[in-house]
Design a protein that fits this description.
227 residues, alpha+beta, 2 domains, globular
């Protein structure tokens, strides 16, 4: 009898126990965004980190390209902080910190960081050198980007090997002068004449004396050298 009563009591307890209903939760999956802009009437974009592939729209297809200086300049003028914010959420904190000083040439800094991650520490110490690395195709007269070669040279000979490969004096003086550049967003038109100046003893002395090289001062030195 006790067993029957116990069984009935257990059954009643089970029936009166609250029922737990598992509801399917709506989980939002955020896909990394691409940065998109228009250049010369054609849509361009750069895909999410770590791919960072530059593409342009041909018909209905996105085709990988090596972005021109003009396309990058258009992006710098049109992409706003609001455009960048969701994209940067998927970029590592160390890379975001490296990119922070580059208000205008941020895409160039992003590309260098993605293609040559081992250079980030050295370039963070000398941000103005990033412009030279980004523009290596023009500075060396190469038909195509040579990121793999840059990585190999840096692995073998460090930052001084990269300076030499870029046609810059491979010296601590060069690094010291470039560290005095106030804005690392060096205009591309400055790169070739500045590289020539770093080989000229008189110009080198003048640059060394200036602890804060602004774009205006660099422009003055460049015009003086050309005169």
């Amino acid at each position: 009898m006790n067993l029957i009563n116990s069984s009935r009591s257990s059954a009643r307890s089970a029936s009166s126990a609250p029922t737990i209903t598992r509801r399917a939760r709506n989980v939002k999956c955020y896909v990394p965004l691409a940065l998109t802009w228009s250049h010369s009437g054609v849509l361009h974009r750069v895909t999410h980190w770590p791919d960072v592939q530059f593409e342009r729209l041909y018909g209905t297809e996105w085709i990988a390209i090596a972005p021109s200086a003009e396309a990058l300049a258009t992006a710098a003028k049109t992409l706003t902080t609001a455009d960048w914010q969701p994209y940067l959420e998927f970029v590592p904190a160390a890379v975001r910190e490296f990119m922070a000083p580059f208000a205008f040439s941020r895409l160039e800094a992003l590309q260098v960081a993605a293609r040559c991650p081992a250079l980030i520490a050295d370039l963070a110490e000398t941000p103005a050198l990033t412009a030279f690395v980004s523009a290596h195709v023009e500075l060396r007269g190469s038909p195509a980007p040579r990121w793999t070669e840059i990585n190999a040279i840096h692995e073998r000979n460090g930052i001084f090997g990269v300076l030499e490969w870029l046609g810059l004096p491979a010296s601590r003086q060069t690094l010291a002068i470039l560290r005095n550049v106030v804005q690392p967003n060096l205009p591309r038109r400055f790169l070739e004449p500045l590289r020539s100046m770093l080989w000229e003893p008189k110009a080198l002395t003048a640059l060394q004396r200036d602890p804060a090289l602004t774009d205006r001062q660099l422009s003055h030195y460049i015009h003086a050298l050309a005169a």
